[in-house]
Amino acid sequence: GVEVGPQPQGVARADVLDKMRKIVKHGLDFVQLFNEGKEFPPCTIEVFKIMEKVDYPRNKNGEIIAIIHPKLQDQDWQPLKDGDPLFLTLDGEVIPYQGNCTVYPTFINEAAYYEKKQAFVKTEKIKLTAKHLRLPLS
């Protein structure tokens, strides 16, 4: 499957549809070239690995008591460092990120995840290396 976003539920966006078409086309081009015997050299790519889901701050009754800080909103895949603003309480208090490493939040404030108690997902940036790839000779 291919998930391209973010976008609100029930909304069709031309830019997101275009991105989806491009990634599917690249995938199909790769399969065709591989099947034709093209050799692919080793390569390294940066990816984001999920670390954990982060919930909104809640009171003892389980009610949300803070929202995503404006400086974090719409900053998916951007670095979040210790001390950066994370949440904003309804009283205007800033709750900073407290962590021992830089993380890369995603799915920030997605409506579909409220019921799952998920304000965002923390990811870490890692490098993956692919070995030389070629269709084996038959």
UniProtKB/TrEMBL annotation:
InterPro entries: AspA/AstE_fam, Aste_AspA_hybrid_dom. Signal peptide: none annotated. Residues 44-125 form the AstE/AspA barrel-sandwich hybrid domain. It comes from the Eukaryota. One of its GO terms (molecular function) is hydrolase activity, acting on carbon-nitrogen (but not peptide) bonds, in linear amides. One of its GO terms (cellular component) is cytosol. This is ACY2 Aspartoacylase. The gene is Aspa_0.
